[in-house]
Design goal:
Immunoglobulin-like, five-stranded antiparallel beta sheet, four-stranded antiparallel beta sheet, about 5% helix
Length: about 130
């Protein structure tokens, strides 16, 4: 239903810290019509070239300053993900994505209060890493 909001085009990039590539990052918009606290993010799943990324390698952030594991995010009610603002999804993988093209899949859903089921979407994009 919200597939058009999932996985912002041209947002997939390797991430560097202290001179080393520590993983890669993608962005998405909310799969709901209004803002929610991070604790209402129901699921985030990433796959690269048909290989699922383990949940413990995924971090999310609204400001790229404070990062949360998916388990930590379940209790975060002080950060609100607003409609139209990106959620940054970082996958910690030493060396990041190798140069070349990859099929990256993002599936995300949120479960707002008083909503009978999760609202989500999925998108696979072919990305080029230079």
């Amino acid at each position: 239903m919200f597939d058009n909001y999932v996985f912002t085009k041209d947002s997939c990039k390797n991430v560097e810290a202290d001179g080393k590539i520590i993983g890669f990052e993608i962005q998405t918009l909310i799969t709901y019509y209004r803002g929610i606290p991070l604790s209402m993010v129901y699921s985030v799943e990433v796959g690269v070239d048909s290989i699922p990324v383990p949940r413990d390698m995924i971090r999310i952030s609204l400001d790229r300053k404070e990062w949360f594991t998916l388990s930590e995010a379940e209790t975060v009610s002080t950060y609100k993900w607003e409609y139209g603002e990106p959620l940054y999804i970082r996958i910690l993988a030493e060396g990041g994505l190798r140069k070349g093209e990859h099929d990256v899949r993002l599936s995300i859903s949120v479960w707002p209060a008083y909503y009978p089921m999760p609202a989500g979407g999925q998108r696979t994009r072919r990305v080029a890493i230079e």
